[in-house]
Structures are given as structure tokens and as C-alpha cells.
Specification:
Blueprint lengths: L17 E7 L2 H13 L5 H10 L4 H11 L3 H9 L4 E6 L9 H21 L4 E3 L1 E2 L5 H13 L6 E4 L13 H10 L3 E4 L9 H4 L9 H15 L2 H4 L5 E3 L1 H4 L5 H13 L14 H7 L1 E4 L6 H11 L4 E2 L10 H8 L5 H15 L3
Parallel strand pairs: 1-2, 2-3, 4-5, 5-6, 6-7, 7-8, 8-9
Helix pairs in contact: 5-6, 6-7
This protein binds calcium ion (CA).
């Protein structure tokens, strides 16, 4: 719901507002989530916490489920009401990663077809990222290739862990190879913490977007870096939402401590020596969006330490549909050039729009 007190978002000369982490879910996915909530056949406490709420009966849940399915008039009206020129759409968390391998692989393909059709109906307002099923890395790489070359999608979204597994495992690296070869980014979107780490979060309601998402996803990104993925795939680009899930704040300490770990060979092959300091990968192989973090001080900090060409606007619609945050980001104390990069130019370059 847009606050009724907000007025004045209109055409702003100089840039288009491209929102880069905007969620979509077909009815079929929500029905499958509801069935799992009833059956409890999948041992994923984070999913049951998250979708137990969003598939529930609260007003917020009803509005969310209504908005998230729409790929047409309702969504466009909400975009118009908040001055959003374009959404880059992606299948909502946890996407198909919840399911068994065969189900997930088949669903990803169907949902990508459906998303591509929605984009084609409004090609100036929508672009899309492919859903893929890391459960079968080879098929996931093929689906990414198909989605980009045949369907015109602009990259892939992966919702952090898949049944507790992380992409630093070399068995997943066909996905990275495909993304690098295609020149498209992978959006590493949050998921609730994996089963192995979620209990202390659940005990105080901290498992979801309030904090658990960020812990889970920043850990995942670091695992990918320290495993040496970017020494192997130096052109690969990963996108992190929520201003980098706290990692930009950690640059100095990460470099200092990781250099000691590798110099002393304390963890052997599990933490190999890398070609560059960790901060170099975070600056050269990552982009950062402001999804859910429409607050000036941390945005300006990420702009300062990561650079104007690494920072992109995102809303996180429909989960965080807050018009005031658009206005706040319109008013960021950035130069006209950097604000254009932030709202438009970086998205056009990164996603080949
Ligand atoms: Ca999101």
C-alpha cells in the first residue's frame, strides 16, 4: 500500500527509475507453497516460517499474494504511482529451490516462459531474470543459456542456499561458467537461513528479512569468494541486494583477517590463497542494490567505498512498497551523473537493457 500522504513523485528530468529486485510469483508457485505448508514434506524451517506468514490470512499477506502474481495492469499502476519506469522481475524467494530436482528443473523452465511472455507484453516497463534450479547444475546452466538467448531474459536469480548447499561447491560451477560466457549477472537473493543455522534466529523471530536473510546471504557470498570462484571466472558478476547484505561495511577487516588465514594456511584447501584481497572481488565482481534499504547514510557509504558504477536502485516490490523511499533516493546527495548511473545507467549496462 502506498502511503496516502505521499505526493510529488513524477517525472524527474535526467533519468529513468529502473527497479532491479522486484518479485513475481505465478499462481502455480503459490499453490505449490500452500500445498507444502499443509503437507510439511520438506524439512526447511525457514520456508515454513516465511511462507507460513505470506500464505496466511493477514492483510499484509493478502495484499502481497495479490500483487506478486500480477504481470500487468495492477503492477503497472503501482509502478506509475511510485514513479518506477521499469522493473527487473525475478521469481520470488525461495523460487523453485524448495523442491526436488525434477520438479524444480521443470518448473523453472515453465516459469521462465511465463515471465518472458509478461515482459514481451510490456517490453519498455519490464525485464526479467531467469529462475534456475541449482539442484541440477548442468540443466540449470542450460536453462540460463536458453532463457538469455531464446527468451531475452537478462541473467539469473538464485535465492541463496539450495537445501542447505552453497554455490562455492565446484559441482555448481557450470552455472557460473554459463553466466560468465553469456555476459549476464547472477542475482544472489536472500533466502531464510539454512536448516543448519536457523534455530537461534527462529527463537526470536529474526529468521526473515529483518536480519536472517542478510546473515545467510552475506555468508553465501563470502563462501563463493574465498573458494576462489572469481579467480576461476574473473568476469563473473554477482548482484547483492540490501546494499550488499552488510559486506561493504566489512571490507577492511575481511582483508586483514583473511590474509592471515591464508598466510598461515590454517584451513588448508578449504581456504586457499587467492590472487587478490577479498575487497578486490567485492569491488570488481559484485554490484549492490538498495532493495529494502532506502536510507541515505548507508547508500552514500556504499557509493563511497564500492564506487558509482557498482550501486543500483531497487525497491523490493511488493515486499517493501514504500513511496517515501523513492523520494529519499531521488534526493540522494549525488552528482547528476552519479544519480543517472544509480537509477538507470548501471542497470542498463549490467543487465544489457
Ligand atoms: Ca527481494
Amino acid at each position: 500500500m502506498v502511503s496516502s500522504t505521499v505526493t510529488g513523485i513524477g517525472k524527474v528530468p535526467g533519468y529513468r527509475r529502473i527497479a532491479t529486485e522486484e518479485a513475481w510469483a505465478p499462481r502455480e508457485l503459490i499453490d505449490l507453497y500452500r500445498r507444502e505448508l499443509a503437507d510439511k514434506s520438506i524439512d526447511d524451517p525457514g520456508f515454513h516460517s516465511l511462507w507460513g506468514f505470506f500464505a496466511g490470512a493477514s492483510e499484509r499477506a493478502n495484499l502481497l499474494v495479490d500483487r506478486i502474481q500480477d504481470l500487468g495492469e495492477k503492477r503497472l499502476a503501482d509502478m506509475d504511482a511510485t514513479g518506477i519506469d521499469m522493473q527487473i522481475l525475478s521469481l520470488t524467494c525461495p523460487g523453485v529451490q524448495l523442491f526436488d530436482t525434477a520438479t524444480a528443473t521443470a518448473l523453472a523452465s515453465r516459469f521462465n516462459d511465463e515471465l518472458a511472455e509478461g515482459v514481451l507484453r510490456n517490453p519498455t516497463r519490464f525485464a526479467g531474470l531467469a529462475a534456475i534450479a541449482p539442484q541440477d547444475p548442468q540443466r540449470a546452466a542450460q536453462e540460463l543459456e536458453r532463457s538469455v538467448s531464446k527468451l531475452g531474459l537478462k541473467g539469473a536469480i538464485i535465492n541463496s542456499h539450495t537445501h542447505g548447499e552453497y554455490l562455492d561447491d565446484p559441482k555448481f560451477w557450470d552455472i557460473f561458467a554459463a553466466a560468465e560466457a553469456l555476459g549476464v549477472p547472477i542475482y544472489l537473493h536472500p533466502n531464510t537461513p539454512s536448516k543448519a543455522m536457523i534455530e537461534p534466529f527462529l527463537a526470536r523471530g529474526l529468521d526473515g528479512a529483518v536480519f536472517g536473510f542478510s546473515v545467510e546471504t552475506s555468508l553465501h557470498a563470502l563462501r563463493i569468494i574465498v573458494a576462489g570462484v572469481f579467480d576461476r571466472f574473473p568476469r563473473l558478476q554477482i548482484v547483492l541486494g540490501h546494499l550488499g547484505e552488510s559486506l561493504p561495511y566489512w571490507l577492511s577487516r575481511l582483508d586483514y583477517m583473511h590474509s592471515i588465514i591464508t598466510r598461515t594456511n590454517r584451513y588448508g584447501a578449504a581456504a586457499p590463497k587467492l590472487a587478490k584481497p577479498l575487497s578486490a572481488y567485492l569491488r570488481e565482481n559484485f554490484h549492490y542494490t538498495t532493495s529494502g534499504m532506502g536510507w541515505t547514510p548507508p547508500i552514500m557509504y556504499v557509493h563511497q567505498v564500492m564506487g558509482a558504477d557498482r550501486l543500483l536502485y531497487a525497491m523490493d516490490y511488493p515486499y517493501q512498497f514504500v513511496a517515501e523511499e523513492v523520494i529519499e533516493q531521488d534526493n540522494l546527495p549525488l552528482s547528476a551523473t552519479d544519480k543517472h548511473l544509480f537509477f538507470q545507467g548501471n542497470a542498463e549496462r549490467l543487465f544489457s537493457l
